[in-house]
Design a protein that fits this description.
Helices cover 61% and strands 0% of the residues. It is mainly α. Residues 24-96 form the Carboxymuconolactone decarboxylase-like domain.
Length: 161
Amino acid sequence: MEPRFNLMDNELGATIAKRIYHVALAIARSPLPQSTQDLVMLRASQINGCGFCVDYHTKDATAAGESAVRLHLVAAWRESTVFTEAEWAALALTEEGTRLADAHLGVSDETWAQVREHYDDDQIVALVSLVAMINANNRLNVIVRNPGGSYQPGQFADMAG
């Protein structure tokens, strides 16, 4: 599978990508646990069918020490015993926030209450922003058909400058 278009080969595309990366960096540096961030990005990417992002976030999570069992079970998190209650709340918010067109009411009051129970205000800002940003990244990559399989952990570290 060949990409339709390389956003990074375009000056405007590269500028936008760098700005998106800086938002991602702010979220990564937030008090939201990195393992939760990794699970959220992987789950949204699975739902959206973004091969590039599934590859990216699986490899980064593995490099950060996440277990293969938890990564394999993200797609079936409701039928799993390896996630905390806080992670369940984050994954529920991720699914409901990603499937807005499928869930006419958006994020349910029940899910929001679970998120409020487990996360402080700064973590919630990071979590909500993360769901929005990963969905944007998924859409960019799916639209241009950026394939998964070639990502290397740390590949985009030079964008921080």
